[in-house]
Structures are given as C-alpha cells and as structure tokens.
Design brief:
By secondary structure, the protein is α/β, with parallel strands linked by helices. It has two domains: 235 residues, Aspartate Aminotransferase, domain 2 (3-Layer(aba) Sandwich); 89 residues, Aspartate Aminotransferase, domain 1, CATH 3.90.1150. 38% of the residues lie in helices and 16% in strands. The chain has 13 helices and eleven strands. The strands form two sheets. Strands 1-7-6-5-4-2-3 form a seven-stranded mixed β-sheet, sandwiched between helices. A four-stranded antiparallel β-sheet has the order 8-9-11-10. Helix 8 links the parallel strand 5 and strand 6. The protein is globular, with a radius of gyration of 20 Å.
Length: 343
C-alpha cells in the first residue's frame, strides 16, 4: 500500500504549473552564466520593487545555504546567534552554522516558536568579555517552526532592541509567504520595513522546484557575499533557472495564492481534528502547519497510510503541513482516518 506523503512537509509537494512554464520559457537558446543574464536582472528588479530599492539580492539553491551563508557574511567565528530551541538553524541544519562559520548558537526555549525582547535580553551576557562568545545576531523564523507568526510590530520591537545593543537581525523566511498571507500584509512589511537586516527568502516550500534568495537591507553587509556564495558552493552557473522561478512566483502574486491556499487547508484540517475526542491542538494555526496531540496508539497506524512527522519524540505530538497542492478531499481523508482509528 502506498503512503500519502502530503502532510509530511510542503517540500513534498510538486512544482506549480506557472513555475514549470517559466522554466520552459527560459530554456531555449543561450544565456550568460552565473547570474549575468537578463532573466536574473529582471528577477532582481522585481525583488527590489517588493522589498525596496535599497536592498541587494542574491539567488541560491537551498534554504540551508541561504541561512548559513547569509549569517556568515555578517558575523565572525567568535560571535553567537540567538535563536529559539526549535529554530531550523539549531535543529535541522546538521551543525552547519557551527561547522561553516565556527560560531555559537544560543537556543532559547520558546514554546510557541517566537523570540521576545525579554528572551533576547536574557542572552546578552559577557559583552566585551574575551572569554565568552559575543552576541552578534538574533535569528527569527517567519512563519516559525511551530506554525505561529510574528506580527510586524513584534519584529519591529525585536529589531529595535537588537540594534540598540549592536546586534543584527536575521530572518529565516522559508515560509515568509505563508506568514504574509496569514496577516494580509506585504512581504516587505515583515522584513526590511520591520527592521530585518538579512533575509533568507524561501521559494521551494511555496511551489518552486528549487531556489532561495538572500536579501540584504543594508548593502554594506553584503560586500563580501558574492565571494562567500561562491566559496559556499551556492553560486548557480545556470542562474536563469532560479531567477525565472522567482519571476513566476512574484510577478503575478502566485506566491500569495499558493500560501493562502496552504494556510486555508491547514485551518480546515485543524477544524476537523478539533471535533475528534482525544485530539488536542498544541499551537494556534496561523500559517500552513497544524500541531496536535494524538492518542499514542493511533500514530503508528495512521503512518501506515499517511506520512507525517512526530514533532516531539517525548510525547505524541505530530506536525501536519499543508501545501499549495493540498486538497479538501485529502484533508477530509486524513480527518476521517483519525476519526476511524480513535474509535
């Protein structure tokens, strides 16, 4: 029996038709390599229209590369990054920041996946002490690994506090589109306009085949990035295939349609699960992820039919992720399966 993988991650979804069409459009003929092509110039212009003309934009293959290389450009090996204890940086990047940058990660417990000024303040110790790692960056994830979202005012408050203490703000925006769709705000309102210094902007989770971007809102911070990107093995020779995908996603608001649909399916899923005795939501559903406690005994049985992750190995908490491909029928099939096995 085949297992439906649709709730494992939005990475499991396919490629949006508009993206496939864009790839087909730029495929014929020749184009100058390494980003010196017309398609990349057009994509960069589009980014500047969305995020502000004062930003610098660089395209990369994947999110781990975007996060680590973006950080590498703004800190030294004796610095530390303050993040939550569920941040992708510290949980799912296989010690990449520590290995590539040599820096220290300071994971802060955050039950809802969100940092606050008080949490950051508690980590500002040893400033100027040569025996201790020096705080340099606060890293936020939008939407968070717990499916929650930062409001613009929350980001602004954190950024203002960080900057007052000489600390930069990095944002892992793998699901920034989902957060913006949830809050009905523009992408820029959650990034540069809110005080973020460096953004890793995700495309893969929202319908692209591959491709992420690093956006610097202070151009001085990106001086070395062209060399860091090459050294970090993230400079694509056939850059037009990344750039064309971003154009397809951003030019006609495909990003918004995809993210809005994924979010809506998550709300439908949560609504169905809430009606089942023995199922309890552990986080508010604010983007495209549902976190729930299920009866321990039913999880293995459900996983024979549906692929999804157990978020917390110490308790029966699962993570269910919806994508632009998720259908109402697929959601109902899962809810029905849970209802059946709970009985």
């Amino acid at each position: 029996m085949s297992v439906f993988a649709g709730f494992g991650s939005d990475n499991h979804a396919g490629v949006h038709p508009a993206v496939l069409k864009a790839l087909e459009t730029v495929n014929p003929g020749y184009a100058v390599a390494y980003g010196d092509d017309e398609t990349t110039a057009q994509a960069v212009k589009l980014f500047k229209k969305i995020f502000g003309s004062g930003c610098n934009v660089y395209f990369l293959y994947n999110g781990t590369g975007a996060n680590i290389l973006g950080l590498c450009s703004i800190m030294s090996s004796f610095n530390s990054v303050i993040c939550t204890d569920v941040a992708h940086l510290t949980v799912h990047e296989c010690c990449g920041p520590e290995s590539f940058i040599g820096c220290k990660l300071v994971p802060v417990p955050a039950p809802d996946g969100k940092l606050t000024v008080d949490l950051v303040d508690s980590c500002l110790v040893g400033i100027g002490d040569p025996h201790m790692a020096q705080p340099k960056v606060v890293s936020l994830t939008e939407a968070t690994e717990r499916g929650t979202v930062y409001r613009p005012e929350e980001i602004t408050r954190l950024a203002r506090f960080a900057h007052e203490h000489g600390i930069l703000v990095h944002m892992d925006g793998a699901r920034l589109c989902n957060a913006a769709a949830s809050l009905h705000v523009g992408l820029g309102e959650l990034a540069g306009k809110a005080g973020v210094d460096v953004l890793s902007f995700g495309g893969t989770k929202n319908g692209m085949m591959f491709g992420e971007a690093v956006v610097f809102f202070n151009k001085e911070l990106s001086t070395c990035f062209p060399y860091i990107r090459k050294q970090g093995m993230q400079l694509s020779s056939k850059m037009r295939y990344i750039s064309a995908q971003f154009i397809a996603m951003l030019e006609g608001d495909v990003w918004l349609q995809n993210a809005s649909h994924a979010n809506a399916m998550a709300h439908v899923l949560a609504k169905g699960l809430r009606k089942i005795p023995g199922v309890k939501m552990t986080q508010p559903v604010e983007a495209n992820m549902v976190f729930a406690l299920l009866p321990e005994r039913i999880i293995p049985e459900l996983q024979q039919e549906f692929f999804f992750h157990r978020f917390d190995e110490r308790r029966p908490e699962v993570r269910l992720v919806c994508s632009f491909q998720t259908t109402a029928d697929e959601v109902e099939a899962f809810v029905s399966a849970v209802r059946k096995v709970v009985r």
